Amino acid sequence: MKIVVTIKQVYDPATVRVSRSRGILDTRAAELVMNPGDKYALEEALKLKADTDASVVALSLGPPDAEDILREALAMGVDEAVLLTDEAFSSVDASVAVKVVGTAVQKIGDCDLIVTGVKATGDGTGEFAPRLAGFLGWPQLLRVSDIKVTDGGVAARRALSSGYALLEAELPVVVSVEKHANRPRYPTLPGSIAAYDERSVTIWGADDLGLTAEDVAEANRTEGRATAARPEREKGRTISGGPAEAARELLGELRGRGLLPR
């Protein structure tokens, strides 16, 4: 059984600042990390590897320095790592990402299961997994946990407000793993050393995938025209005094703002 797990390099949200003067996110001092949601997908794939003796391929689309998160995945226990990087991929939307990653999965070949996170931090919309399944013509199980391999398929649980649902699909299938579905492991020190000194990351560009710059440009469906920072949050007002006096003042303030009937 071959499992492909998709991972993405993102900015650590704790290190990103908002530049209100320029109306953009200031990432000059931001740190790059593996998308937190993808770590749950990676852990689920590695659990399946242990249970079924499957091989796991970590696949990422990004700039050359995204190789670091693939080295991290190798240190955690994946068997192979593939980075999709090319100048033609430098500005992509979800449509392009699906086309490039889907083409790479077809090039890898003999894939039974694709495991993804639900969405990426920051700009994630949760559409990548279902659109990838549509591109490949595979069934999909979304926002699930506790994935098990069955006879010719997989089964998983999806949390509901009143409990959970048991879902099943035949292989090959695309599965997105819910946040907090498991406890992702940490890379070991020997694994990290081996990931950089002994293991290799396969690099594929547009030519390796049989794609031209025109193919990529035609797939792009998103045009960014402007960005703006949201208005700063208004400062609150402290209401002091005794309980009865404070309550009267609070009610008067709420009525004055039209939030309560007069």
Word description of this protein:
This protein has 262 residues and is α/β, with parallel strands linked by helices. The chain has two domains: 2-219, HUPs (Rossmann fold), CATH 3.40.50; 236-262, no CATH class. Helices cover 31% and strands 26% of the residues. The chain contains seven helices and 13 strands. The chain has a nine-stranded mixed beta sheet with strand order 11-10-9-12-8-1-6-7-13, with helices on both faces. It has a two-stranded antiparallel sheet with strand order 2-5. α3 packs across α4 (128-136). The longest helix is centred in the N-terminal third of the chain and has 17 residues, at 36-52. The termini are far apart.
Briefly, what is this?
This protein is of the alpha/beta class and 262 residues long. The protein has helices at residues 36-52, 67-76, 94-108, 128-136, 189-197, 213-219, 243-256, and strands at residues 2-6, 9-11, 17-19, 24-26, 32-34, 55-61, 80-84, 113-117, 140-150, 153-160, 163-170, 173-177, 202-204.
Label this structure with key terms.
single chain, 262 residues, alpha/beta, Rossmann fold, 2 domains, nine-stranded mixed sheet, two-stranded antiparallel ribbon
What portion of residues belong to β-strands?
25-35%
Over the alpha carbons, how many angstroms does the gyration radius reach? 23 Å
- State the end-to-end CA separation: 68 Å
> From N to C, what is the helix and strand string?
EEEEEHEHEHEHEEEEHEHH
Main sheet properties? 9 strands, mixed
Strand order of the largest sheet: 11-10-9-12-8-1-6-7-13
Number of helices, where a helix is a run of at least 4 consecutive DSSP H or I residues: 7
Q: Based on DSSP secondary structure assignment, what is the total number of beta strands? A: 13
Q: Pairing-aware structural class of the strands and helices? A: alpha/beta
The general outline is: globular
Overall tally of structural domains: 2
The overall average pLDDT, rounded, is: 91
Q: Output the CATH class name of the largest domain.
A: Alpha Beta
CATH superfamily of the largest domain: HUPs
- From the 3D structure, determine the CATH topology of the largest domain: Rossmann fold
The percent of residues in helical segments reads 25-40%
CATH architecture descriptor text of the largest domain: 3-Layer(aba) Sandwich
**Low-confidence residue ranges:** none
